[in-house]
Amino acid sequence: MKMLQIRNVPDDLHRKLKARSALEGQSMSDYALAELRRSLERPTRRELLERVGARERAVLSESAAESVRAERDAR
């Protein structure tokens, strides 16, 4: 397993990390690792946009306006 060291952590961020890890009953290292893992499991905005862009486009037989108009006229 690899080791990661983070330098120059701002005091306020360190305090929050220390407090939250204590509330969870974890070491700061274990808590930070869990948060990092959770963050990296979610796709980034760029990854989401790439997925959406790769999807096949839907081809509609009529426009949305035509569909709404037809439903209104049917009443």
Tell me the number of structural domains: 1
What is the overall number of helices?
A: 4
End-to-end separation in angstroms reads 67 Å
How big is the Rg? 24 Å
User: Segments where pLDDT lies below 50 for 5+ residues?
Assistant: none
* % residues in beta strands: under 5%
The assigned structural class equals: mainly alpha
Helix content: 55-70%
Helices and strands, in order, run as: HHHH
Query: For the report, how would you describe the main beta sheet?
Result: none
Shape: elongated
List keywords for this structure.
75 residues
Describe the structure.
The chain has 4 helices and no strands. The longest helix is centred in the middle third of the chain and has 14 residues, at 28-41. It has one domain. 63% of the residues lie in helices and 0% in strands.
Helices, strands, pairings?
Elements lengths: L10 H13 L4 H14 L3 H10 L9 H10 L2
Helix pairs in contact: 1-2
